Amino acid sequence: MKPTPTTELTQQVAARLRARRSFLDLTQEDVVKLDGIGFGQSTLSRIEDGDRAIEIEYLFPLCVALGLDPITELAESWAEVNGGGESTGGLRVAR
C-alpha cells in the first residue's frame, strides 16, 4: 500500500524532531522532563518512530522545548514531502 501524504508528513516531522533531539544530545527521557512536555517517553518514542500522529497539543510544546518553531517545522516538512515550494531542508532555531 502506498503511504498517504499525511503518513509521509508525519514521518517527515518525526524525523526532523528526532534529528533535533539527537543534535542537542538529549535522550527521550531528557526531553519528556523538560518544562511544558506533558507526555511520557513511550509517547515520544511512538511520535519519533512515526507510529503515532503528532497532535498539535504534542507538537507545539515539543518544538518549543527543542528550540524549534512548530510552524516552520510543519511548513518545511510539507514542502519536502510534496516536492514543492522553498525548503531549506535544515532545522531552524526558534527565536
Would you tell me which CATH topology applies? Answer: 434 Repressor (Amino-terminal Domain)
Form type: globular
Mean pLDDT, to the nearest integer, reads: 84
Structural class: mainly alpha
How many helices in DSSP terms? 5
Distance between the termini: 40 Å
Q: What is the number of strand segments?
A: 0
The CATH superfamily is lambda repressor-like DNA-binding domains
Question: Short description, anyone?
Answer:
By secondary structure, the protein is mostly helical.
What does this structure look like?
The protein is mostly helical. The protein has a single domain, classed as 434 Repressor (Amino-terminal Domain). It has five helices and no strands. The longest helix is centred in the N-terminal third of the chain and has 19 residues, at about 5-25.
Task: List key phrases describing it.
single chain; 95 residues; mainly alpha; 434 Repressor (Amino-terminal Domain); 5 helices; 58% helix; globular; disordered C terminus
